[in-house]
């Protein structure tokens, strides 16, 4: 077994035996142990009682975090004409049509969110095998296939987070930075949990939210009391 470094041991010891904490206590612990030389991302993971392989148990959605993510989001938009101009004016980093498709097919993906107008989906559809596995495929269910591209770009850059359950029924996302005020981080955590709860699928049986964990990029994870994370 590889020998753990002093910093890793200290992080694990700080989190040891601290389970089912309140959101506020978990945030305080995470912030206090985020000692990397960069501003660590605070990440949340929810273990859900679903099997995403079944269509009626898929969990996906989008939430606008009240205090943003602290991350610079690069946005690409598939649009033509006036809609392309709207996207550029709203701050989109990349705007294009067939030319953008060819760039992506060539292996260059320099964006974190992809938005498209409905008329561009036949073009975007050819990129399904590239964008799909990266969770970048535009989807009307999360507002990334829309005629209101300006609002979609604004939302993406303003702290909107998409989520989707993985094969094991786990949903995870970044909900801020360790440098954030503790109260703002706690507010973001509750907003995210609330959005996942509202996205409960019809086919979910038994306990829906089984476990919630919080960690920083380089830190150990701690579990949060599920009832503490509920929005009051």
UniProtKB/TrEMBL annotation:
One of the record's GO cellular component terms: ribosome
Function statement: Protein L1 is also a translational repressor protein, it controls the translation of the L11 operon by binding to its mRNA.
UniProtKB keywords: Repressor, Ribonucleoprotein, Ribosomal protein, RNA-binding, rRNA-binding, Translation regulation, tRNA-binding
Pfam families for the chain: Ribosomal_L1
Gene this protein is translated from: rplA
Native source organism of the sequence: Roseovarius ramblicola
InterPro entries the record matches: Ribosom_uL1_bac-type, Ribosomal_uL1, Ribosomal_uL1-like, Ribosomal_uL1/biogenesis, Ribosomal_uL1_3-a/b-sand, Ribosomal_uL1_CS
PROSITE patterns referenced in this protein's UniProt entry, alphabetically: RIBOSOMAL_L1
Record text on subunit structure and interactions: Part of the 50S ribosomal subunit.
Source organism superkingdom: Bacteria
Family label: Belongs to the universal ribosomal protein uL1 family.
Protein name: Large ribosomal subunit protein uL1
């Amino acid at each position: 077994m590889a020998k753990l470094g002093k910093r890793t041991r200290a992080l694990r010891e700080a989190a040891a035996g601290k389970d089912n904490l309140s959101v506020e206590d978990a945030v305080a612990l995470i912030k206090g142990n985020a000692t990397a030389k960069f501003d660590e991302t605070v990440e949340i993971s929810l273990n859900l009682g679903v099997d995403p392989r079944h269509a009626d148990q898929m969990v996906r959605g989008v939430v606008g975090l009240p205090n943003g993510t602290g991350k610079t989001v690069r946005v690409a938009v598939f649009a033509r004409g006036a809609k392309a101009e709207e996207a550029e004016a709203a701050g989109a980093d990349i705007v294009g049509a067939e030319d953008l498709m060819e760039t992506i097919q060539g292996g260059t993906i320099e964006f974190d969110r992809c938005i498209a107008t409905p008329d561009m989906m036949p073009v975007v559809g050819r990129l399904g095998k590239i964008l799909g596995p990266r969770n970048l495929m535009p989807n009307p269910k999360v507002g990334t296939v829309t005629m209101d591209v300006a609002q979609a770009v604004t939302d993406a850059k303003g702290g909107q987070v998409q989520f989707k359950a993985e094969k094991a029924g786990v949903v995870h996302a970044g909900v801020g930075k360790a440098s954030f005020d503790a109260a703002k981080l706690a507010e973001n955590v509750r907003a995210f949990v609330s959005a996942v709860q509202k996205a409960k699928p019809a086919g979910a049986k038994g306990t829906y939210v089984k476990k919630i964990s919080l960690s920083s990029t380089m830190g150990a994870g701690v579990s949060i009391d599920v009832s503490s994370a509920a929005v009051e």
